[in-house]
Design goal:
The protein is of the alpha/beta class and about 270 residues long. The protein has a single domain, classed as Rossmann fold. The strands form three sheets. The protein has a six-stranded mixed beta sheet with strand order 5-6-7-3-8-9, with helices on both faces. A three-stranded antiparallel beta sheet has the order 2-1-4, with helices on one face. Strand 10 and strand 11 form a beta hairpin. It starts with a strand and ends with a helix.
């Protein structure tokens, strides 16, 4: 497959024969790039992820994957009181093998991954005591030590405060640019996709979709078609560099604020 990590060809799925969630999707994810998947609730994002992960057979079409995958879920809950080190070592399951114990090499790899994310001091802490952002970095470390080539992330910034959202998005970029990993993530935040994704797929329903370079796909018209609200593309300068971001328009808030200003002026 050369430079292609993941190829989707004529892909579609329907839980009922006459109700297709999506159909005739064709796109590819290049090796080492960040790829964003966007769509409203109920459009089939979770179903598409299950197909990519091999947990669900598509009703139509094929998916070709070149590389080992690791999955980082949206919300990670554990039943037992695992330590952070235990959680990361679970990522070495493929290397350790069934009924075997992690070796010193495995533990060194796990600690190196924790150090990489700046959370080595949490190694002996219970995982469930960490904050949402800290947990997400632990799961990133676990994915890293699995030696996967492709990371599949389901809404990696959900339930995180603004600071931790930025930390996670920064690490997505680093894992792609510095480590050469292919990263595919779902998001409800178009501005996150615009900030870090190379390519994007917008699930518009049925056979309608938009795929390609994120800077082109994440247009005001496409996003209005996707979410049914106005979203504006804004450009600005920061620290000597040009940037772009996407901002939703809140019509009622704007009218209320303008009305208040008008009343005060009288």
């Amino acid at each position: 497959m050369n430079n292609i990590a993941l190829q989707i060809s004529n892909l579609g799925h329907a839980y009922k024969s006459d109700r297709w969630l999506f159909r005739d999707y064709n796109t590819q994810v290049k090796r080492g790039e960040v790829f964003a998947l966007l769509g409203p609730n109920g459009c089939g994002k979770t179903t598409l992820l299950k197909i990519l992960l091999g947990a669900l057979k598509p009703a139509a079409g094929t998916v070709a994957i070149d590389g080992r995958m690791a999955f980082v879920p949206q919300l990670f809950q554990v039943t037992f009181d695992y330590s952070v080190m235990d959680m990361v070592l679970m990522g070495r399951a493929r290397q350790v093998g069934l009924f075997s114990q992690p070796s010193a090499e495995d533990e060194e790899a796990a600690m190196a991954a924790l150090e990489r994310f700046g959370i080595a001091h949490f190694a002996g802490h219970p995982f469930h005591e960490l904050s949402g952002g800290e947990r997400q970095l632990v799961i990133f470390a676990r994915a890293l030590v699995s030696e996967a080539d492709i990371l599949i992330l389901d809404e990696p910034t959900s339930a995180l405060d603004l600071k931790n959202q930025i930390v996670v998005l920064d690490w997505i970029t680093r894992l792609s640019h510095q480590d050469g990993l292919t990263v595919l993530f779902t998001t409800h935040h178009p501005h996150h996709a615009l900030a870090v994704a190379d390519d994007a797929l917008l699930m518009l329903g049925g056979t309608k979709y938009a795929a390609g370079a994120a800077s082109e796909v994440l247009s005001e018209d496409n996003l209005h078609a996707l979410y049914g609200v106005d979203i504006k593309l804004l450009s600005f300068e920061h620290s000597g560099h040009s940037h772009e971001t996407l901002v939703p328009v809140l019509p009622y808030a704007s009218r209320a604020r303008n009305g208040s200003t008008a009343r005060e002026s009288r």
